[in-house]
């Protein structure tokens, strides 16, 4: 018995996982979504910014983490738009640039960047090369880091960029990240060089795998809020849904994630029972 | 998510590559390998193209920096071209200069940045954790309890990496507690990893279930076809005669070559 539990073919577990995750996606369970403190600490500081404040929205992720990072960035951009905040969007990952353009088109309309607000309350600079060096240059002298926007317009011709010339002008940095350069590089090369957390507050939307590593920075106040993976995106959508009627798109995904986590907990318990029985029960595996 | 100009093709292609790459979980097969290679190739080309566009087109020609006489921008071009001396035996030493410049810049930047944000600020925030004061012990869990746990965790976890003395007595107790804190940290990291991987899997499943084209095509129509393709290829590979790798005894010796 102990040995049979320990030796279940992993492929049966995959099939079980596939079936159980599919059920809530096809037929949402509508489980409640409690809002975590991490998410509230992204929402509240953003909502507290006065209209016209400048928010940097940085798309530092690739296609592999779109399910987590994209809904986070999209929801936060929508929030900024509703609050009348000015957004300077950019990407320090080359693969983040087209995703950023895509998300902005979803939030600001499919005609983006050919909209009246472009250049006034929203600018998309696109990819800034150089990784950490590019990030530091962007904080020191925004125009020097990128002479033209994603669509070829000189930054000097964009009225918003007249107000955004260095980190001293940033009121909030929203970092959507799944690696390096990411939130740690923003802390080191922008926040650390320009007055600390009070001068450049940072909120992060990250893949869940990276969040435990961010907690020391969160506890130290270097990061003021974190959207934790798909759950963080869902929680933020839920808050926006109440405030602005924003579509709660991640609901089925959160249901599926809850089901998957319960299943994995059961797997872990079964595995431990099998191990304990084989070790202490005098089974074949001992 | 799918660009309208690609439409149906992107949906069909997306379904097939998704099923092919996940077929790896069942067994590695030619289709999963093909998609893996396709992904690596596309990522490499996309990165190269994007960086070329950003560095050359946007930083130089798009902004007319060099045309306007700002010749300092030529220096990075010249330095980067020196990388190509990697392919020359005679001038290989020149290849080391751009490498040295990049290493030097990054080391300088990282040392300053890391010490400030990852070291000093972390120490500062740990030693200033509130233990007394108004509201510190109010509510549940009180902030003071968090502070005490953090302080114990920092001290004991650090003691685990203290190798000057043998971990016995008081130090042994401390390292044991520190090990539990480290295990809890790894557990949290594992939980985060599971959560992240599940999110990606759910993202792919939502693509399969929710992608449609002009109300007549749904991506999940193709799932059975893609699965059948995987089965056919797996069976075909299984039917091929297997080649046994040479055993160490029969493997041709390289002894003579290495001696040369």
List keywords for this structure.
heterodimer; A: alpha/beta; 2 domains; six-stranded parallel β-sheet; 12 helices; 12% strand; elongated; B: 260 residues; mainly alpha; 8 helices
Characterization of the model:
The complex is a heterodimer of chains A (286) and B (260). Chain A has 286 residues and is of the alpha/beta class. Chain A folds into two domains: 2-29 and 252-280; 37-249, Rossmann fold (3-Layer(aba) Sandwich). Chain A has helices spanning 2-6, 10-26, 37-48, 66-83, 96-108, 132-140, 142-145, 159-163, 183-191, 211-219, 229-244, 251-280, and strands at residues 54-60, 86-91, 122-127, 172-177, 202-206, 225-228. In chain A, strands 3-2-1-4-5-6 form a six-stranded parallel β-sheet, with helices on both faces. In chain A, strand 2 (86-91), helix 5 and strand 3 (122-127) form a beta-alpha-beta unit. The longest helix of chain A is centred in the last third of the chain and has 30 residues, at 251-280. The radius of gyration of chain A is 22 Å and the shape is elongated. Chain B has a domain at 1-63 and 162-239. Chain B is 67% helix and 2% strand. Chain B has helices at 7-22, 30-61, 74-81, 92-127, 143-160, 169-210, 223-239, 255-259, and strands spanning 212-213, 217-218. In chain B, strand 1 and strand 2 (217-218) form a beta hairpin. In chain B, helix 1 packs across helix 7 and helix 5 (143-160) crosses helix 6 (169-210). Chain B is extended, with a radius of gyration of 29 Å. The interface between A and B is large, with 61 and 50 residues.
């Amino acid at each position: 018995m102990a040995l049979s539990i320990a030796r279940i073919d992993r492929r049966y577990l995959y099939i079980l996982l596939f079936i159980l995750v599919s059920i809530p996606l096809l037929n949402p369970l509508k489980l409640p979504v409690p809002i975590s403190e991490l998410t509230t600490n992204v929402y509240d500081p953003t909502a507290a910014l006065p209209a016209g404040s400048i928010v940097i929205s940085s798309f530092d992720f690739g296609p592999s983490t779109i399910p987590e990072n994209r809904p986070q960035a999209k929801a936060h951009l929508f929030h900024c738009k509703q609050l009348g905040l000015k957004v300077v969007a950019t990407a320090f990952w080359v693969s983040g640039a087209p995703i950023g353009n895509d998300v902005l088109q979803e939030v600001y309309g499919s005609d983006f960047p050919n909209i009246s607000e472009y250049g006034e309350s929203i600018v998309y600079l696109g990819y800034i090369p150089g990784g950490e060096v590019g990030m530091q240059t962007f904080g020191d002298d925004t125009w020097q880091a990128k002479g033209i926007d994603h669509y070829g317009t000189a930054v000097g011709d964009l009225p918003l960029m007249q107000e955004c010339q260095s980190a001293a002008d940033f009121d909030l940095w929203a970092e959507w990240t799944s690696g390096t350069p990411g939130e740690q590089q923003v802390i080191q090369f922008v926040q650390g060089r320009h007055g600390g957390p009070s001068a450049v507050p940072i909120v992060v939307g990250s893949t869940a795998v990276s969040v435990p590593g961010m907690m020391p920075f969160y506890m130290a106040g270097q990061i003021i809020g974190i959207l934790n993976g798909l759950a963080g995106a869902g929680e933020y959508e839920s808050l926006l849904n109440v405030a602005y009627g924003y579509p709660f798109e991640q609901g089925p995904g959160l249901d599926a994630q809850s089901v998957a986590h319960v299943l994995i907990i059961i797997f872990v318990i079964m595995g431990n029972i099998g191990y304990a029985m084989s070790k202490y029960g005098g089974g074949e595996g001992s | 998510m799918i660009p309208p100009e690609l439409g149906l093709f992107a949906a069909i292609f997306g379904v097939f590559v998704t099923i092919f790459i996940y077929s790896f979980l069942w067994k590695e097969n030619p289709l999963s390998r093909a998609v893996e290679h396709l992904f690596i190739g596309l990522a490499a080309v996309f990165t190269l193209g994007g960086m070329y566009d950003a560095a050359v087109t946007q930083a130089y020609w798009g902004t007319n920096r060099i045309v306007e006489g700002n010749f300092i921008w030529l220096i990075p071009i010249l330095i980067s071209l020196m990388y190509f001396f990697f392919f020359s035996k005679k001038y290989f030493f020149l290849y080391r200069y751009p490498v040295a410049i990049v290493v030097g810049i990054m080391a300088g930047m990282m040392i300053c940045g890391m010490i400030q944000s990852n070291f000093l600020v972390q120490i500062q925030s740990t030693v200033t954790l509130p233990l007394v004061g108004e509201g510190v012990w109010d509510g549940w869990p009180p902030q003071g309890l968090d502070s005490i746990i953090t302080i114990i965790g920092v001290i004991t976890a650090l003691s685990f990496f203290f190798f000057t003395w043998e971990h016995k007595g008081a130090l042994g107790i401390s390292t044991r507690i520190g090990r539990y804190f480290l295990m809890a940290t790894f557990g949290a990291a594992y939980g985060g990893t599971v959560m992240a991987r599940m999110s990606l899997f759910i993202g792919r499943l939502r693509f399969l279930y929710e992608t449609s084209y002009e109300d007549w095509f749904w991506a999940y129509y193709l799932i059975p076809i893609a699965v059948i393709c995987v089965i056919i290829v797996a069976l075909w590979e299984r039917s091929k005669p297997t080649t046994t790798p040479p055993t160490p005894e029969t493997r041709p010796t390289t002894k003579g070559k290495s001696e040369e």
